[in-house]
Structure formats: C-alpha cells, structure tokens
Amino acid sequence: MSFNTSQLLQKKKKYILELWMKNQLADEGLREDLISNEELRSQSEELINSLVGNLSSENVADINSDEWNPVIEILGGIAITRARQGFSPRETGSFVFSLKDALIQVLQEENKNDAKVLFAESLKISRIMDNLSIVTFETFIKGREEVILRQTDEIAEISTPVIRVWDGILALPIIGTLDSARTQIVMENLLQEIVETGSSIAILDISGVPAVDSLVAQHLIKTVSATRLMGAECIISGIRPEIAQTVVHLGIDLSNIITKSTLASALAYAFKAMKLEVRKTSTVLKSNF
Amino acid sequence: MILSLSKDTIKISQEQDVVFLKNRVKETAVKIKMGLVNQTRIITAASELVRNMMRYANGGNCVIEVVSSGRVNGVRLTFTDKGPGIPDIAAAMRDGFSTGRSLGLGLPGTKRLVNEFDIKSKVGEGTTVTIVKWANG
C-alpha cells in the first residue's frame, strides 16, 4: 500500500466527525424528536473512535476479521436502540451512509493528485462501510422482530380473560384461533380461577373462534375434562350454525359436553343448575324514601 | 374439465402461517361468492390439512386456486409436503385412526367437508393432498 489510509483517518478523526455531523444534521431524515443532537454526537464519536482505532491496512478488506467485532457491536447497539425508538430503516441506514460520505470526502481531499490511489482507497472504504451498513440493517430488523414477538406474547396474555359473571359462574370468551399454546394459557387461567373463586360452572364462549377443526375440538374436550376433574361443570357456548354443521361433518363427537348457541342460554342453564331464578318484578318497587 | 383461473402459492413453515393461510382461503372463498357454511367448511378443511403438514412434515407448500368447471366456480387447495409420507392411506382415511395421539378425524373429516378429495403419498418422499370445494356444492 503506497499510502496509509488508516493513519490518515486516525489523524483526521476530529475533522471526519465534524464532516459527518454536518452531513447528519443537514439530512432531511434527521429525527430531532427521537434523538438529541448531543446524543447523536456522542453516538457518532463512539463509532468513529472504534472504527478508526480498529482499521488497519490488513483488515480493511476482510469484514470477518476479529478486529471488527467491537465496531459491529457498537453499531449493533445503535441499530437496536433505533429500532426500538421507532426510527425508519432509511433513517437508520443514512446514519452509516453519511459516515461513508464523510470518509470518502476526506480521502478525496488528501489524494487530489493521485486518482489511482484515490480510487483504490475509496473502493476499500466503500466496501467496509457497505458491510457495516448490512450489519446495521440486520440488527435493525432483529430489533423490530423482537418488538413483534413481545407484542405476540402480549396478545396471547390479554386475549384470554376469565370473567366472573355471577357468584360461582365463570365465563371465558375465546377470540381468534385456538392453538396448543393458547389452549394451555386458557386452561391454566380457567383452572386457577375456578380454585380461587370456588366456582362450580364455567362457560367457554367460542363466538370469536372463526373455525373449529379437529385440533380445536380436541383442545376444547381436554379443557372440559380438566374442568370436570376440578369438580366444576363446563358449558361451551357461542356455537354458530356453520360451525355446528362443520363439526358434524368432521365427525367430532361433542355430545358429552353441554353446548349452547349463545352465552345467554348458557347463563340461563347455569342459573337453572344453581337453582337460581331471574324474574321480572311484578310490582313497581316502592322507593325507600 | 376444470380450469384454473388464479393461482397463489403460500409457503407454510411456522405456526403463524396457518392463520395467514386461513385468511387467504377465506378471501378467495368470499371472492367467488361462496356461502358462509361452505366458507367455514373449506377453511376448516384447510386448517386440518395444514395442521397435519406442520405436525408430520414440518411444513410445506399450499397452492390456492380459483377453479371453474362449466358454470360453477370453486376453490382448489393443493397441499404438498416433503415429509415422511403415509404408509397406509386406507388406514389414515379411517375415522379415529391416528399415529399422533389426535382425534384421528383430520383426513376422513376433511373428505366429508369438501366436494373432491385426492391424496397421494409416497413413504420417504412426501404427501400431496388436493381438495376442491364448489361455491354452491
């Protein structure tokens, strides 16, 4: 190498940072609402220090060398925080790309007279920065996927409430597809609540389940059996006409289970089983005044 | 003579794809003005088959087609996997037969839910199941 880029960059570190900051602040995608200028500067400074510190004429062509690990780590950290803060991929990408612009500009200023060297060095810097951009994107996407996973967990958590509709009667509206994981949560919540409230009747409402296939049916049967083992009775309500026909065609036997078409009729059945009566008052109640 | 009017391939590799597939099947069924009961039938059938595919073959491909035969339109679903295959199809088509501790109603039940049902399987190579549900069938 006729000309040592890494030494040059080391020397010009401050200048590069200034150039980079200028690029970033001039960029349309600057998100002052998400990140303050001071924070941006300190992030940039950390990355430049690590990048310039680890760059040598040997590893410039090889992104897989161990010396790049600290740089990748810092970049990964920045990308993940940005993903969580809600930066768009373009905004995150331009963070790295604007550094590339700054580095190339410095190279240009230094090698004005030697186009050959300028070309060779720019190519190397380009390649390394492109690789770092890819790393940034990969980490960014991973960060977003984590957000999605967390939301999936949350949905599973909130979508299985157990409601106490009456003293001794629990209702459990199920919404969405009932897979093995959901069934497990439903069953756990239901059995726990039966113990805690001492309820004797549980109503599983499947109005919100789009289709009942043999696996869903099997899960329902299991839940009912588990409830019975606890000494409580389980009623399945919300069976729509099309679901009833499909279940019959599939050949699933639900005759051992008490099923009702609506939650109201299930509740009525539960009242009857508990020898409760709901009546319309015959006379207007006299107020206590 | 059955004509294919549109074709859509969905790759099934994880649990989330099941819901996605069911939604696509529903969209297709609604598009050809299938009634609610038949919609539910084809969705349930798709659900059975895709679950089998996930469970025994770790996923595969599903092709959703709108098919036409004369004046009626229908939905054709083709499930292809590269799983272990089914050694005894006749047994698998019997009610209550299961190698995986399930109810054993998936394949025979699916057959009852749809108008046309075809299964081909080779041990060690994989299984292909094709079902057709006509809009008014």
UniProtKB/TrEMBL annotation, chain A:
Keywords: Phosphoprotein
Claim: Phosphoprotein is one of the keywords in the record: yes
Every STAS domain range: 159-270
Secretion signal, residue range per the UniProt entry: none
Keyword Secreted appears in the UniProt entry: no
Protein name: STAS domain-containing protein
Origin species: Hufsiella arboris
Source lineage: Bacteria, Pseudomonadati, Bacteroidota, Sphingobacteriia, Sphingobacteriales
